[in-house]
Amino acid sequence: MTAPLVLLIEDELPIRRFLRSSFSAQEYRLVEAETAELGLRVAPQQPPDIVVLDLGLPDMDGQQLLQLLREWYRGPILVLSARDQEQQKILALDHGADDYLTKPFSTGELLARMRVALRHAARPGGESTTFAIGGLKGDLAARRVFVDEKEVHLTPLEYKLLTTLVRHAGRVLTHRFLLKEVWGPHHVHENHYLRVFMASLRRKIEQDSAQPRYLLTEPGVGYRMAAE
Ligand code: CA
Fold this sequence. Notes:
Layout: E1 5-9, H1 13-25, E2 29-33, H2 36-45, E3 50-54, H3 62-70, E4 77-81, H4 86-94, E5 99-102, H5 107-122, E6 130-133, E7 136-139, E8 144-147, E9 150-152, H6 156-167, E10 172-174, H7 175-183, H8 191-205, E11 215-218, E12 222-225
Parallel strand pairs: 1-2, 1-3, 3-4, 4-5
Antiparallel strand pairs: 6-7, 7-8, 8-9, 10-12, 11-12
Bound molecules: calcium ion.
């Protein structure tokens, strides 16, 4: 298998330098673009396996660039944002980004998120009817869920919420996305539905709801199912 090709769209040279050495140590191949325009030009020429995109670029709004890429690019896009861009992160996820990291981030964290995103992208779609994330196991065809070999009984909405998170394990899902998927497009602002159902799911699935192992909170953004 050839090494995955990363397209890094980032204007800050120190960050590119620093990532360059981490990526090569992990045997990723790397194409760098310091502007949005360059990124848009090289992406179709050499379709990357994953895109790492800085939202703060000098020549184009990162959200617009993300949408332009998403018109044709199906691979994972991981977004980098500055600390004061909380709203930007949510918007990016809703525009089709797979994940985000806030600067300054650790290389270890970035590489871990990239592995999850690449693994997710490599998985053949919709074929497996079973899942296992640590002690959390399920059979989607039989609609059964187990925690540490004990069956857990979920309401239809709890089940739908759980399976939506499982299908995207390792990825941050925004409140809006989850509300749309589980309750439908007319309920995307009903954040309290999510709080209530997430609390009941945690009571059934987590050993300690206050320190969840599986159903992780991304403060102000949404939720993430643990990847392992
Ligand atoms: Ca920047």
